[in-house]
Amino acid sequence: MKKTLKQRAEAAMPGGVNSPVRAFRSVGGDPIFAKSANGAVLKTEDGRKLIDFCMSFGPLILGHAHPEVVKAIAETAAKGASFAVTTPREIELAELIRSAIPSMERIRLVSSGTEAVMTALRLARGFTRRSKILKFGGCYHGHADSMLVQAGSGVAGIASASSAGVPDSFAKETLVAKYNDAEAVTRLVKRHGKNLAAIIVEPIAANMGLVLPMPDFLQHLREQADACGALLIFDEVITGFRLTFGGYQKLCGVTPDLTCLGKVIGGGMPIGAVGGRIAIMESLAPLGPVYQAGTLSGNPVSVAAGLATLKRLKKDQPYAALARTTELFAKSLFGMAATLELPLQIPYYGSLFSFFFCEQDIRSFEDVQRCDTRCFAVLFKQLLRDGVYIPPSPFEVSFMSTAHDDRILRKAATAFEWALTAVAEQI
Ligand SMILES: *Cc1c(COP(=O)(O)O)cnc(C)c1O
Fold first, then answer.
1. Strand ranges in 163-317 using DSSP code E only, listed in sequence order
2. Is the pTM of this model over 0.85?
3. Which of 7, 59, 242, 347 is the most exposed place for a label (fewest CB within 10 A)?
4. One of 235, 257, 367, 386 is an active-site residue; which one?
């Protein structure tokens, strides 16, 4: 008998995937296999057409296979996919990013968000000559060792490893506080401030579902970092160029020392970027003692896709329209859930939204963990059956793109109505 794609995948790759969430473990059921995609629609190998709200987890703000991005990729690749020497387009991308995010006075391009964060952390440690990093529970910063941690026991805030393979000796260099808990930050800074190299945060948390910062939380981080001489790092891998042409820092008015980017700035191709104050960035090799390098850093094809995406965004400024579309869509789904008396919250901001099956206010990962993940799994599976693909985990956010037009959203809303009804029948 001919083997299925799933069987072949599982025999060739751990769990059949190259990134764990793709295995659908938190929702159950068979993972999908992509064949192609265009605009807001993803076609699967088994012939289904899905309205996509996962959008590659964020990069595709212009939709799948946007003609200008495709053209940029094809034309660039035809002239050579990689040279490992500097190209003018890398300079242009760095200049464009800096014009939109002025705090990124110098920029290094890397190949993923993880790598951007890894570099930012090493820079912070090298620049401050300190070792400890403060992060927040539920914020995801890629899979660097010191970020794969969870709050340990005890009030000291010392983390324990959340992945095998991360030695305790690494994990204990990270402190974990509750997101939105300003007091915990003050306490930890008081206790560990002298050894603290950086505070790293998703300025809008978008990897535990969507959790917005409380008023003044980010300003508090700025003040606490300044008070102890630590750097403030904004991980804007999701928020960068997704909510405005620039970073969330432009909207919240708090300026970090270092910023990490990824996702949108590569238009679907692998990329990351770290940038910040000149004095800090000039600690990087070859100017300074902090080593970082990459064979494919500033890759011409990634840079071309990123430039095409950013130029279109700069010209069209689709952000207000995306936010309006997202708000209307989220509110219409919320209305359906309310009619069904489902305890569902649908927070939204800009082109981001997510689903929390619970009633209480969500301000931290502790709150998120109280939500009903079984309801989410039912919603996910039913939507998939009815032609809508949301991210396969209750902790991932959904993404609206400029390709999600009224016709598509009306179709998606119908699928949501059926799926929410199915959830209501099962609880
Ligand atoms: C996706 C993401 C990363 C990691 O980026 P990769 O390109 O997957 O390595 C880091 N931080 C945040 C906030 C992210 O959403």
1. 174-177, 196-201, 231-235, 258-261, 272-276
2. yes
3. 7
4. 235
